Amino acid sequence: MLTPSSLLNGERAVVLLFVSAILYSTHPSIIIEALAFSLLSVFALFVEISVESYGSINLFKTRPGASSGIFLGAVTLPGLAVSRLIQLSRALLVNEVGTEDVEFIRLQYWATSTSCLCVLVFLCFIFGHESNKAKSVSFNGRHTKFSISSIALFAALCCLSFAAKSSSGAYLALTLFWIVCHGLTAVKFIQHVLNTFPACASFGEALLVTAGFVVYFGDMFAVTIAKISKYLVSYGLSYITYGAKRSEISTIIQGMLLGLLLSPMLFKFILKKWELYMISPNSEVRGHYEHKRSIIFYGSLAFILLAVVPLWMQFVQDFPVHPFLWVFEFVLSEPHKRLSLCVYWVAVIFVSVLRFYKISKNSKIERILLRKYYHLVAVLMFVPALIFQPLFLNLAFGAALGVFLALEIIRVWRIWPLGSIVHQFMNAFTDHRDSDLLIVSHFSLLLGCALPIWMSSGFNDRPLAPFAGILSLGIGDTMASMVGYKYGVLRWSKTGKKTVEGTAAGITSVLAACSALLPLLAATGHMFTQHWLSLLLAVTVSGLLEAYTAQLDNAFIPLVFYSLLCL
């Protein structure tokens, strides 16, 4: 029997506080989106309680030791989109942004929410099928009626939102079709993630990755279609307008990431054909297999990144020169500052990696504390660059993410000669949330710091929003772990390791860092407003989330913190 305490545990209470803060700050112009967000939140909570009361969904093997995280995973990205809509609505009133910027984020919100809703419906269907099959829990008629009612009401709100803004029936139909495609793709993609990487993620983590991937690369596909339609106007077809103006840096990062993700598919296809040739009766003796396999991998990777991806970049962005030459010119446009920053980063990385790797091999220090030292290194590296060279940091984050992704592909595929070396090195810093199949901690730390900065590249009237990842992970999470490990006595729960002392230290340290950072930003000419009440709420909610969640906190905490800072 479900009790009130089991229905509303610590993580769910914090997520409800997050949702309530966003809904309370909603601008009247986005009331429909706020209603849809509240409906999505209720449905996600319903699905999480249903799944966790049953035990699990046997069709998929999720990360051991983690809760389902469905509620948190379903509301994080839609909540972030609503926060951005609230922020842009303020800017629209004073003509700081155009209506196309607001409409682009509105479209992104509905695409994200629909992706999450469709995954929730899929999980609900699987849960109902398994529970009825096992005859342990009945997925009764009230559950079915509630699910159908939620879906119908959400669809009606979506249609109403776009019908109020659109004067063309064809455009409305095309927009709704595009949003539905996001949802169907998300259902297919999360199955691929959970089946390809079993026991590597909870449902909430997989849902966050799924919604992010589908919306991010769906945006890339839409930009391409819109650009193609521009050249087909002369043939009598309508020109499709999509999105707001984007920077060259965002296009380069988007194309590079897609190229890196497509390269294993090309490698697998070529390798399969090559292995068929190798085992044919007329083939020569198979020698140096690993060497030839690595040549195929590096060749396919170079072809994608140097030939295919730059063509797409120039097609959608109209670069005056080759994209790689543009990057070179961009770096050298301020050579002293940017090259000096590169030297500083290389020095910090070299010293920290060398030092911490030796400690991990020769010391009995807790691995969780060793990993937190890298969070402090992130503060040393990123804060100066974010204050004085934010555009260059945007590009650097993309380059670092590309390197991480390439190395992880090399590690997973055991590509000679780096595969085994990278695998051995990365194992020195893994914890219970990583596996031999997929190591995600370094990705989550990098993206946790980078995403708030990338999302603040347009209009931003909150000075601390770009620092959300650096503050919450580099300072708050680090201090909470260190203080809690050394001095923590009072635990938040009987089964958890997080302590009240650690959480208090994390919240206090972030507030202190904000107090020091705001005058520094003001001295550099940044003219923003940041209400201390909203800052206190954002810091407290993100600190409590770190204390209660069993999910990958590097992924969720920065996004929650950023969303609340934008209010």
From TrEMBL:
Keywords: Endoplasmic reticulum, Kinase, Membrane, Transferase, Transmembrane, Transmembrane helix
Compartment(s): Endoplasmic reticulum membrane
A single GO molecular function term of this UniProt record: dolichol kinase activity
Residue ranges the record marks as coiled coil: none
Record EC number: 2.7.1.108
Family: Belongs to the polyprenol kinase family.
UniProt GO BP: dolichyl monophosphate biosynthetic process
Listed transmembrane segments: 30-49, 70-87, 107-126, 146-164, 170-194, 206-229, 249-271, 295-316, 336-357, 369-389, 395-416, 437-455, 467-488, 500-522
Group of enzyme by EC: transferase
Protein name: dolichol kinase
Entry keyword annotation includes Transmembrane: yes
GO cellular component: endoplasmic reticulum membrane
Main location: endoplasmic reticulum
Membrane topology annotation: Multi-pass membrane protein
Classification of source organism: Eukaryota, Viridiplantae, Streptophyta, Embryophyta, Tracheophyta
